[in-house]
Design a protein that fits this description.
Helix content: under 10%
Structural class: mainly beta
Number of strands: 17
Number of helices: 0
Radius of gyration: 23 Å
Order of helices and strands: EEEEEEEEEEEEEEEEE
Shape: elongated
Oligomer: single chain
């Protein structure tokens, strides 16, 4: 069984054994943007990686929003796929008249190796409603841990806007006797959904002077146009 996504392929209802019907779906992630009321089309490609013909069932799992009708459909919903063959399925989107963002999942299912099991491949659809985005982030908490050669800074964020953010952390710390040291978060930033909390960490390497206990911590995030915004908080506030 082959899967190229963090959502993966899931065997439900039984253990994995014997010949397996394998299915793959691309792309791994489906980002969409559009103004309210606009119609958008997208596509996913299903590939049968096994040596057997499979019956594929497609469906959508859509996060409901009160007062809104489903904004995305998929077709066809059922088809047969021979070994080594591909099939394209179409997504049709009508951008809601609301604001912010919407999420859905495309589920592809085939029968598993047991009569009571099935294999699922899941891909995420993320829609941003253009012109309605509101970007707002606050640093709710700071924690510092001193080590012999560095200070570990952890910040807790709250996304106060209506679109998902990926804030990265920077810290600028004062040194005993004068001078400053600065460091920025390494690795991938964690996605923080609207109204949710997240965290980031950065390790600031010290000189022989040591840390004087002061400093500024900054969270950076990018909007849909590529502009970088920042929010600051003083250590000890």
């Amino acid at each position: 069984m082959k899967s190229r996504s963090v959502w993966g392929a899931i065997l439900v209802g039984g253990f994995l054994w014997g010949p397996v019907r394998a299915l793959d779906m691309t792309p791994e992630f489906i980002p969409l943007r559009g103004e309210p009321g606009r119609r958008i089309k997208a596509a996913v490609t299903l590939v049968n990686d096994s040596a057997e013909t499979v019956n594929v069932r497609l469906s959508l799992q859509v996060a409901p929003v009160e007062g809104e009708k489903p904004w995305v459909t998929v077709s066809p919903q059922k088809f047969r796929l021979r070994p080594g063959k591909k099939r394209v399925a179409r997504l049709k989107v009508k951008v809601p008249l609301g604001s912010g963002e919407r999420e859905a999942q495309v589920w592809a299912r085939v029968r598993g190796p047991l009569s009571t099991s099935e294999i699922r491949v899941i891909r995420k659809v993320h829609l941003v409603i253009e012109g309605t985005e509101r970007y707002a982030l606050s640093i709710e908490s700071l924690r510092t841990v001193g080590h012999a050669d560095r200070v570990s800074v952890t910040a807790g964020f709250l996304n106060e806007g209506n679109v998902t953010l990926r804030p990265a952390l920077g810290a600028d710390l004062g040194l005993v006797g004068g001078g400053r040291v600065t460091a920025y978060q390494e690795g991938n930033a964690v996605a923080v959904a609207p109204g949710n909390f997240g965290s980031g960490q950065v390790d600031v390497l010290l000189s022989q002077k040591g840390w004087d206990g002061t400093g500024t911590v900054t969270a950076y995030y990018r909007d849909s146009t590529g502009i970088i915004h920042q929010v600051e908080k003083m250590v000890g506030d």
